[in-house]
Amino acid sequence: MSIQSSEFLNNKYLEVLIEKTIYGIDISSVVEILRYKEINYVHGQPDYIEGSIIFREKAIPVFNLRKRFSLETKEVDDNTCIIALDVQGKSVGFIVDGVADIVEIKPNEFTEIEEFNVSISNQFIVGISTSEKQVVILDSQKILSYREIGEI
Fold first, then answer.
1. Which candidate in 84, 98, 99, 111 could, as Cys together with 32 as Cys, close a disulfide (CB 3.0–4.6 Å)?
2. Do the beta carbons of residue 33 and residue 19 sit within 8 Å?
């Protein structure tokens, strides 16, 4: 009996660091983890879109997740990287402070965010893992608005 790659990827998340929080991005949408490289600024974009990079012979937009989450920017360091993702069939990049690990979090191992009464923006968050090392599960599809996805 062979295991299909999509089965293997179920419930697996790439842990990325932003500020002091560990976020989880569904590994099935991750295409590649790239070292930070120079980004070409594109005028007229929202401030959280840094510009574009060439990835696999295509220019793709690069989003700064710190800015998207209304956090202060920080200097690029050796840990800063760009996560190349496939979002609804389009390639995009997300700048993160660093990458930690790949973890498995089953649906019964996280709490949906609606159960929290906090003042953070919930629009990009699926839930928070209930394990000792809490991981905030992101919905990479919702980080981009439908308007932005259409323009990419």
1. 84
2. no
pTM: 0.80
Q: What is the pLDDT of residue 146?
A: 41
The string of DSSP letters for the chain reads -PPPHHHHHTTEEEEEEETTEEEEEEGGGEEEEEE----B--TTS-TTEEEEEEETTEEEEEEEHHHHTTPPP----TT-EEEEEEETTEEEEEEESEEEEEEE--GGGEEEGGG---SS--TTEEEEE-SSS--EEE-HHHHS-HHHHHH-
User: Tens digit of pLDDT for each residue in 51-64?
Assistant: 999 999 999 999 99
User: Which CATH number goes with the domain that contains 94?
Assistant: 2.40.50.180
CB 62 within 8 A of CB 91: no
- Domain around 134: 5-151
Q: What is the pLDDT of residue 7?
A: 52
Regions of the chain with pLDDT less than 70: 1-9, 113-122, 144-152
Name the domain count of the chain: 1
